[in-house]
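Model it.
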Amino acid sequence: MSEIQTNLNQALRLLEQFGPRELAVIEERLAARKQNFERPPDPTGVFDLSFDDYLAMSDEERDDIAFQAYQTLGEWIDAELKKRKAEWILVCGGEVIESSPTLDDYPSREKLMEIGRRRGLVPFVFVRTPLIEESGWSALAGDDFYPTIRLTVAAPGTSAAHLPTSGTEFTADFDSGSPNLFVNYDQVIANQIIDHQPIDQAHFRSHLGQVYRYHVLPLLIGVRSEDGLVAAREFSALCVRDWSESPLCLINSDREALAGPNLLIKFPLRLELDGARRITRIALD
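Modeled.
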């Protein structure tokens, strides 16, 4: 028996001890709660899926469920995100139980596991569509170039001193129209920067007419300035599956990562883009 069912049975036994006056107060509060919680239409029944059954599924089966949810609940998801001015919402049993205006607060694996175990249902996280404005110092066709920035990626909790030995270097295309950091999921898994866990829900979005899937995961990002100083910050990065086949590589097939102005703000950094020499200079404020 799930914990939520046990709690329900205890609540029912407690209700039997109340008189008419106490029951009237409870009914009033339940009515008010019901007005604040309107369960969205759920034709596929994803919100009633058992958490234990969900964890026992294969990766592809879990991805199919997440894709189904985005497809069938897209309008409701977008409306809830807009209403809360949120970057993501956490939904369990059809109820929005948490939201935030930043991916930096994206629910941790531990939190999602705790909610799923306690409620017996799948805690889904739905995120706002990532904005990518391809504004073409990576060489592109037609003598075009992308400014680049060198990043070191490591597991959360890694000290800046251990970044050179524990991290993996990426050359990220820098695009001021991309507010998120996009990295290659398969590469960070292969380099043991993060591990794969069933609770890591896939998200699905389209770019340049092609669908891609990604996970939102915490990573430690390090940068080195021109004078040799090293700084590191933890980011909630969008880790894209099947990176080389994704639409993020249509503009530049050699792209290793895509960074935006959130790097400048979080560290903070000052970038000097030298168009004549096609280099990027970094200074740490």
